[in-house]
Amino acid sequence: MIDVHCHILPDIDDGASDFDESLEMANIASKDGICKIIATPHIYDGKYAIGDIIKRVDYLNRLLKENSIPVIVYPGAEVSIGLDPGMIPKYTLNHTKYTLVEFPHNHLPSFSGKILAWLISNGLKPIIAHPERNYTIIRSPESLLNLLDKNIYVQITAGSLTGDFGVDIQYCAKFLVDSGKVDMIASDAHSKEFRKPVLKEAAEAAAILVGRKASQRLVSTNPAAILAGEEIH
Ligand SMILES: [Fe+2]
Asked: Of 2, 102, 200, 217, which residue is 20 to 30 A from 206 by alpha carbon distance?
């Protein structure tokens, strides 16, 4: 499996506290069946450049090799929808056109559609991070469906499907998977304890809803296409 959303890098956001924890997170991921991780620190402003992320990814990959942990980490970011749109293209997933975009949890900004359209018109492929955890979308999933078009992708959090965030979010996650609106499940892990970097249990929950083949697309096939910069079908 491939995890496309994980706060495994230290010293940038509220993810891993240091590289020791990054290694422990990678170890947990590996034991769960994850072999590749895209590091996606929160980017709210221009304080950290993509070069800062790449440096940490390179260093972590060296440590993973030295410690014989069979996981490869790739550079990426989780950009805020409030970030200056002109900066967003600098922070894509593994140097592709895919970019992971985060909404605030408590509402859906009225300018969201305009920003997504602007990103698409500039050649990017926006992926909406965990919409099932947004209060507006929980209350009214149509507000997400109205935003989507064929160039916009949806990633939900593994723990949402398995009930870690409560029944409302679990219901919304299941509704979106069942409706065929979800393209990826990712851990959004922040530490070795809080929201761990695991996907297997959520993949099994998705398989109950949509079957094993479709579930595999969410944790393996589509994430592999993202890493390679290929089309998601
Ligand atoms: Fe995240």
From this structure: 102
Residue 146 Cα distances to 16, 67, 102, 124, 182, angstroms: 35, 46, 17, 19, 14
Predicted confidence at residue 195, as pLDDT, reads 86
CA of 94 relative to ligand 1 center, distance in Å? 16
What is residue 45's three-state secondary structure? coil
The ranges of the chain with pLDDT < 70 are none
Is 2-228 in CATH node 3.40.1190.20? no
Enumerate the domain spans of the chain.
2-228
Q: 227 C-alpha vs ligand 1 centroid, how far in Å?
A: 17
Contacts of 30 (CB under 8 A, 6+ apart): 69, 70, 71
pTM across the whole model:
0.97
